[in-house]
Structures are given as C-alpha cells and as structure tokens.
Fold each of these.
Amino acid sequence: MLDFSFQNPTKIIFGRGKIARLSKEILKNKKILLTYGGGSIKNNGVYDQVHTALSGYKVFEFGGIEPNPSFETLMNAVELARTEKVDYILAVGGGSVIDGSKFIAAAIHFEGDPWDILAKHAGLQKVVPLATVLTLPATGSEMNSGAVVSRKSTQEKLAFHSPLIFPQFSILDPTTTFTLPLRQTTNGIVDAFVHVMEQYLTYPVDAPLQDRFSEGILQTLIEEGPKALTTPHDYNVRANIMWSATLALNHLLSMGVPGDWTTHMIGHEITAEYGLDHAQTLAIVLPSVMYVKRDEKQEKIIQYAKRVWNIGPADAREALLKLHPEDADSETAITNKIIELAIAKTRQFFESLGAKTNLSDYGIDSNSVSILLGRLEQHGMVKLGEKGSVTLATSKEILENCL
Ligand code: NZQ
Ligand code: ZN
C-alpha cells in the first residue's frame, strides 16, 4: 500500500426531512448567501424547506448557477457577497451549484484575479465557510475538496483543490432526488461509477480493503442504478445511490492506491468544447481508456471482471469456442477475451441506463480529435494516467477509439 494522510472534515447529515437541521448547524448571527441553480429547487419544495429552516437568519440569494458553472456567472455572486459582507455560503443543488459555491467562497477574499485560482492553482489564504444541501448524487462535491469551473469566453473547464473548501456539513435527503429527470439520474450513476473506476482500475498495490470498498460501490451502483430509473420514488434505492456517490469521491477510496484521472481530464475538454454533460463524456471515454490501456491495467481489469461482473476464464473460453475455437486453450487469448468482455459489460451498463458511449452519437466527428488534443496540450495534460504514460499520442488513440 502507498503512504497517505487522510482528513475529511465534512459532517454528513443523512435522511428524510433533515433540511430542517440547518438551524442547528449554522450560527444565528451568520450572513448567509444561499446559492442555487436554474430553479429545480423551487419546483420540488427544497427551496421552501430551506427558507423555513432558515427563518430568522439574514439570507441573501444568488440563483442561476448553470450546469458546468461559469466563471462569468460566479463572479456576479462574488460581487454580491463582497458588497453584502456575506460570511457563510449555503449551496443548494447538484455538483455545479456546489462547485460554483466553492469557487465563490474561495474568490471572495482572494486578492488578484480569481481566475488564477483555477488557471494557476493560486494558494488560498482565507475562504468563506460553506455548507451544502445536495439534490443530485453524482460528483461527491458535497464531501470533497475539489471544484470544477468553466470559462465561457475561452471555452475552458478547469479544476482546483484546497482543504479549505471542504463543506463544513452537507445535508443528504434522498427524497430531494425523487424529481431528478432520467438523464440526471443516469448522469449521477455514471459519474459515481467512473469516479470509483479511476481510483481502482490501475495496478495492484496490495490494498485489498480499498479494492473491496471500490468493488462494493460498483456493485451497488450496478444493482441499484437501474431501479432508480424504473422506481424513482423508492426511498431506499435513492438513498443507496446517494451514499454510494458520496463515498465514490470523498477521497477515501484513493488513499494508499494509485489513481488514473485520464477519463475525467479528457471528458472535461469534451464538455468545454462541445457542451456534453459531464457524465455523458465519461460514458464515452472510460471504455476507450480501458481498451487502450488494457495491457498496463491487465491485472486489475481481470480482477474487476471476476469480482464485479463474475466473468472468468470459463466465460472467455466459451466465447472463444464460438468465434475462434483454435484459441480456446490459449492463455493469452483467454486473458484478452476476459478484458474484452469486461469492457463490453461496462459499456452495456452505461447504455442500459441511457448513456451513449460514442462521440458520433452526439454528432461529433473525427475533426474533434485534433481540437481536443490541442486543448489537452494547452492545459498540460500530456502525462496522464497512473504511470504518467498517457501522452498526447495515447490520448489520440483513446479519442479515436471514442468516435
Ligand atoms: O440548475 P437546476 O435547476 O437546479 O437543475 C439541475 C441541472 O439542470 C438539475 N437538478 C439538480 N438536482 C435536481 C435537478 N433537477 C430536478 N430535481 C433535482 N433534485 O440537474 C441538472 C444538472 O445539475 P448539475 O449540478 O450540473 O449536475 P452534477 O451534479 O452532475 O454536476 C456536474 C458538475 O460537477 C463537476 C462536473 O464537471 C460538472 O461541472 N464535477 C465536480 C466534481 C467535484 N467537485 O469533485 C467531480 C466531478 O468529476 C465533476 O467534474
Ligand atoms: Zn466526475
């Protein structure tokens, strides 16, 4: 196992009706900036629950934070927060609202151009405390120290990390997710699944506990995910997905093991350039990363095949007997077939949830490859992967495979 230090200070308050707990968690003298997105919280009663819980507080509001929150929009909130001397931020929504609010919290007291927080990873001295009410399980932002912000004018999408932006607490009431459109439910499941995969599918470092954690979350998403599409008001299904998504990216899984964030880094460029939802990009890129990096990841893909999908040598041999009987006793052919079957299962899972797995499904053609490679180069994404072996040439192969 690799060395690590782990500290996650976010308190999770989980369950039905827990929004009412806001007044127990935030001091009465706080000047709160309530941030939200395009209005879903007004349609599903979450906004009213928050206001009821915060009666008696001084609350300012900033709505309209868009999916893939933009620097341009967020700077308007920073201006409001500075003018009103806000000293607490409550983000109510999905990953975009939470990420955007983390940026607002970081930018309020930042001296200089706040874009540097993203573009230059400028250090933060003082951050306004932040809490969240999560309405879309997907990103893990409610319990992690990262945020991703886009800049419309330059079509860039960049991340920043700081221990200062962990939410102080997050309220997770699964009933708030009953109103999610199918597309967002799917997005959340795919995003969480890929977060786990990027901390799991690297190379073995004798960390069986981390592996079992990851496999447990993957299996839960595989079992519960489809149910959320057919029975969206099933509390326990929503609860299991919500907790899975939080645990998928609250840094626990990555402790002591290598990580490979290639899929996310390429995915961010696709969103910035073509506007696909975050998870839509991941469903396209992950199978391709698995395929192109299958030799480097061989041991873990075989483990994933066996433990997550119950695919082993007997299944591979059976498949080979149908198509290439002459290879049915070759160990190499069996290994390759297991890998192929595991990738196919992953792709089928995404597609069964309604996520498409090719760029061409969105009308994006081969011209995109050079454009996206240029963006990766511009952002220094030239040595990605658990071994830094994903050069631009490898990314080219990955992207060509995504078409
Ligand atoms: O804006 P509103 O009206 O609230 O509607 C949202 C939005 O249109 C809607 N929605 C949210 N909760 C709802 C709901 N609709 C009905 N009922 C509810 N309960 O869903 C739409 C999408 O919301 P968004 O917040 O954009 O989705 P998500 O949570 O998937 O967040 C995506 C963003 O997070 C970033 C992504 O890059 C993307 O910008 N990520 C953040 C990470 C982090 N901080 O650690 C890691 C991730 O890998 C990811 O990069
Ligand atoms: Zn993600």
Amino acid sequence: MPSPALDQDLADRLRGKFLVFDGPDGSGKSTQLNRFIEAAEAADLTVCEVREPGGTHIGEEIRKVLLDAKHEQSHPMDLRCEMLLFMASRAQLIAQRVEPAIKRGELVIADRFISSTLAYQGSAGGLPIPDILAVGRVALGKYWPNLVVVFDVDAQTAQLRMNPLLRGKEFDASKDRIESKGEAFHRRVRQGYLEQAQQDPHRYLVIDATREPDPIYEDLIAGISGKL
Ligand code: TYD
C-alpha cells in the first residue's frame, strides 16, 4: 500500500535523529519500519537503516553465533556471554554506521537496539537491568536513541504471526535460538518492554500492534510527531 509522505515539519525534526523500532518477535515491526522509511525518503530524508544483531560485517559474524540453534544442546551459551555479544555487535554498529550517519544529519532507524537486550536478556532472561545498562554505557557512549517505538503484541498473537501453521505445536524448526524459547519467556519479553516504557515515558512510544497495519501506521506517525 502507498505510504503518504511525512509532512515537512516532521521531516525537518527527524534530521540527525536516532529512532529505534522494537518489540517482541512477531510484533510486525518490520512491516511498519519499511513503510516509515519509504515515507521518510519520500520527504527527502536520507535514512540510515540498521538491524540488530548485525548491520556490519563483524556484527553479522556475531549474529551467526548468537542465533545459531544447532549447537544449543551441546554448547549452551551463558547468558552473560549472550548479552555481551549483542552489546559487542552494537558497539561496532555505532562506531561504523550510527555515529557517522548522525554526524551527516541523516535519520538513523534501528530495527532493535539496547531495548531488546533489556527485554530479552534482562526482563525475560534474568540478568540484572543495572548490569545491562552499565555495559550499555560502555557500548553506546553518547549514542542513545531519541525515541524507542515499542510495537506491543500479546505472546499468542505474536506466535501465530510468526508461523500461522504453528497452532498447537511445540517446536518449529524454522525458528532461531531465541525465537524458540517458549511462551513464558516471550510473555516476560513483552512485560519487559512495557516496564521500560513506564520508566522512561518521554523516550518510549508504545503502540498497540495487535491491529491491522493501517491504524498502527497512523498511530506511529502521530506518536513520533508528538514525542519528538
Ligand atoms: P531477528 O531474526 O533479527 O528477529 P526480528 O526479525 O524479530 O528482529 O532475530 C533477532 C533475535 O534476537 C530476536 O529473537 C530478538 C533477539 N535479540 C535479543 O535477544 N537481544 C538483543 O539485544 C537483540 C538485538 C535481539
């Protein structure tokens, strides 16, 4: 569906800003992200789009280690190792992509960022939030996002969106190591995002993502415009 261009006032406010699109697996954030980027580019913004984990050559190598489901049984990954790898990939991403783009006045849009680590390895995994934030301060330096958009969706809807054929089944071989972690884990992930947003309401925008794409997109534009 065509994406209306952003109005000029909003486009001007987005220059040199850093937005994160985040949410549980199956939240539909990628659809919204693509649509928003199309609209931003139509309004003459230069967009630097990055995805996590990955986004750089080194980051993509780290991503393979992180998401590889094959060795989970024989070589389970320690949770602190997992958190540090996500953060290492992020440090590289900031140095190589985010910092230069912001300096050029581009709009940086990240598909996941430290908010994912806080939700997955922190709230759901069990690592203390202050520890993650401490490592985050080292990895991010001054490049914290201006706004984190959380696409909020309940675990059941998310599960079905990820794989409509999954109804009633326990294991889905197409999922990566983290997606395979079960419903209780994903409920805590969702809760984690909502807690982050409660604690930092100026920097977070929560959108009800259980609906159809059009109303979600309308809320997204109104919300970004209101927060920035
Ligand atoms: P990916 O295939 O990129 O998922 P999505 O398309 O949903 O973004 O896989 C990323 C997975 O890694 C996803 O399950 C979320 C998880 N993740 C963490 O656990 N911690 C993190 O810090 C990040 C960035 C991602």
